[in-house]
Fold this sequence. Notes:
This protein is an alpha/beta fold. The chain has helices spanning 4-23, 45-53, 69-77, 94-98, 122-139, 152-165, 179-193, 228-239, 241-249, 257-274, 318-349; strands spanning 33-38, 58-65, 84-89, 103-106, 144-147, 174-176, 204-206, 213-215, 280-287, 295-303, 306-310. The protein is 46% helix and 17% strand. The strands form three sheets. Strands 3-2-1-4-5-6 form a six-stranded parallel sheet, with helices on both faces. A three-stranded antiparallel sheet has the order 9-10-11. Strands 7-8 form a two-stranded antiparallel ribbon. Strand 4, helix 5 and strand 5 form a beta-alpha-beta unit.
Amino acid sequence: MNKTPILLGSLISRISPNLTRYASSSNASSTGRKVAVLGASGGIGQPLSLLLKLSPLISDLSLYDIQHTKGVGADLSHIETRAKVKAHVGKEELGNALKGMDLVVIPAGVPRKPGMTRDDLFNTNATIVADLVSACAKNCPRAIIAIIANPVNSTVVIAAEILKAHNVYDEKKVIGVTTLDVVRAATFIAEAKGLDPTKVNVPVIGGHSGNTIIPLLSQVSPPVSFSQQELESLSTRIQNAGTEVVEAKAGAGSATLSMAHAGARFSFSVLEALNGKQGVVECGYIATHDGEFSHFATPLLFGRNGVEKSMGMGKLSDFENKLMEKGKKELNGNIQSGLNFAKQYLAKSK
């Protein structure tokens, strides 16, 4: 008798739980959370939604975009995991997409093309983020908002100003997702030093573009030593890694798959902390009251209400202090651009 069907069934039953466990470390008995992805049909939104669908942390996955969302939702809804998928398309369905959400992830916006900087995306993506966050203020004012849409150094500032205007701003719940910088740093350092990338941790502070990205190679875990040449080459590669992908795709898009992974990793950490897991730390870009920046990325401790506290930046090396100094003007300029845009947007909205 042919035993292939039995063996195949056994194999699938072993693989499927492993995929789900990979998607997040919590088991299915955890409190199910409601998550919305705004921009779910895009290059980041689709793979991000797939990874979120695999997680037992999520009971309801709400997908929103201005087009093609129904197809993405139908496709994902066939996957045999816990999360129930609902798809919403067009501005008239945005409110329903957001009601009752615990976490809203915003990858919406246009991608970079060769020769473009994140700042070139500013006007288009700033308006998209402002509109989406305005809807969040009205429909899920207590949700955590994770912003992927670039330029993050500015869009997070815009989101904060929009929420303030609606009197629902909570700085613990508005975070720019800089996890991809951390992921890239771990990968590149592991490659250079022959380490397991899953065991490497690198704090990355500052912002999320070019010179504002400041990898703290002096604080790598496990401890690793670098020559001056390695410090310079690795730091430069981490800062310009997005451009590396844009150029390699030659006009076909920007970093979508790695960003989806980073966005999912960040989302799982937030959700695990909401469910009571202790000691959850991820880097993120938030409002700050220390130093010379109104917004800044550091390692953050998450809890049941979002960000509990910044873990700070520790003691910087001379090389890292020079990187800080080099990125200071650009970061403050990005922040000011966000403030200026928000002021104009809110004035038009009155």
